[in-house]
Amino acid sequence: MTVSGSMGRSAVLSALLVLALVLPLTAAPPSCDWPQFHGPRRDNLSTETGLLKQWPEGGPTLLWTVRGLGHGFSTVAVAGSLLYTTGNVGEDTVITAIGLDGKVAWRAKNGPAYERSHPGTRSTPTIDGGRLYHENADGDIVCLDATTGSSVWRLNILKRFDGRNIQWALAESLLIDGDNVICTPGGKEIGLAALDKNTGKTVWTSTGIGDKPGYCSPILVEHEGLRQIITMMARSVVGVAAKDGRLLWRAEHVTRFDENIQAPTFHEGYLFFSTRTTGSKLVRLTVDGRTCSAETVWANRDMDNQHGGVILLDGHLYASNYSARPGPWVCLEFATGKRTCAEASLGRASFTFADGMLYAINHRGTAALVRPTPQAFQIISQFKIPEGGRGPTWAHPVVCGGRLYLRHSDLLFCYDVTAR
Fold first, then answer.
1. What 8-state DSSP symbol labels residue 405?
2. 107: closest CA among 92, 127, 120, 119?
3. Quick one: which of 111, 104, 105 has its CA closest to 89?
4. What angle do CA 342, 272, 117 make, to 5 degrees?
5. Is 208 within 8 Å of 247 (Cβ atoms)?
6. Cβ neighbours of 412 (radius 10 Å)
7. Which of 92, 319, 366, 418 is most buried by its number of CB atoms within 10 A?
8. What is the pLDDT of residue 324?
9. Is the pLDDT of residue 25 over 70?
10. Edge-to-edge strand order for the sheet containing 190-196?
11. 35-39, 50-54, 320-324: which range is least confident on average?
């Protein structure tokens, strides 16, 4: 195009100026990978940088809100240009895929809605190799095409493995290990099982555990050449061989109401776990060839996290307690269990970590940006999320691609937390 005269040049300059102002607002967010509950490594630690160190009054910019997800406590998984979550919609458990612009891409059903005690969905979808894997509260597992939502295979683990449901229903988010999908039917005979992720066929089963399932999402650990799946059952913590499901070790951990929920935290041969009422424990894993044992290093009740998450940073553990004594926000030394801090702060909350900060939301819908140190939880900014959801805000926050995702019941909020 040829431009002649001052009027033409002025028009072009004006157009370019408008374009320059518009592009930063409409450009796609940075790509990120948070393909499962608590992120790629299941440690709930984001590697993102360049985020706001303080929020404006009233909170960061709300980019969009999605309504109609159905009631649930599931958080989001993010993979490629889509994010995924689940909710009760009518009589069904419904998986919803949402574009980064907040528009619904597709919906798919996975069995009935859970309507018993504390109705709503629990688990978060897991994305792997272009497919989505999800388990509902009654043990229905579905494998879907992550782009279209079309069904690849489906089954029920309680029926296949003679499993047992629990008081507040199955809540695990499925773990992918290579070609295997790891699940926890918690039967009298079969505690854990591995399914072929392409077909749903049984690869191995783990026997000898005897417990019902916990509410925990399993983790994968490799220590001294031995790969193992670790999870919390209803009354114990167990490790099984990732290759064939052999029970390697079992540590009894009995809690009131069998509420073993929070996934254990593994670090350099040590495993930490914390539960409501019973408290916290650190065990040492010792590998000898194909076997492994677990020995208690310390145990106390200074931290009794229920389901808000535990963050391990620089040798210290951060969480909010179920009880208010001490805390309910508490920091412990990982190696010794020594309490270094206990504060009232926001009350019981769920966490994630990114760029040096805790992103928290308490059970009453107050979100906060917190600078954690072993001596204090410094609240930098906070705001109240919009009203409209029902029940407590239990879904864990997610920070991905410069955005903060907060879920409350039927609603999903997307905030811009990128420093500009």
1. E
2. 92
3. 111
4. 80
5. yes
6. 25
7. 319
8. 73
9. no
10. 175-177, 180-183, 190-196, 202-207
11. 320-324
Report CA 255 to chain centroid distance, whole Å: 22
Q: Which residues contact 398 (CB under 8 A, 6 or more apart)?
A: 34, 75, 76, 78, 352, 404, 405
Q: How many CB atoms lie within 10 A of CB 53?
A: 13
Q: What is the largest CA-CA distance in the chain?
A: 86
Q: What share of the chain has pLDDT > 90, as a percent?
A: 90
What percent of the chain is helix, strand and coil (3-state, nearest 5)?
A: 5, 45, 45
Rounded to two decimals, the pTM is: 0.92
Peptide bond before residue 374 is cis, with ω within 30 degrees of 0: no
DSSP state for residue 1 in the 8-state scheme: -
User: What is the rounded CA–CA span in Å between residue 35 and residue 44?
Assistant: 12
Q: How far is CA 182 from the centre of its chain?
A: 16
CA-based radius of gyration for the chain: 22
Are 401 and 32 a contacting pair, CB within 8 Å?
A: yes
User: pLDDT for 332-352, tens place per residue?
Assistant: 999 999 999 999 989 999 999
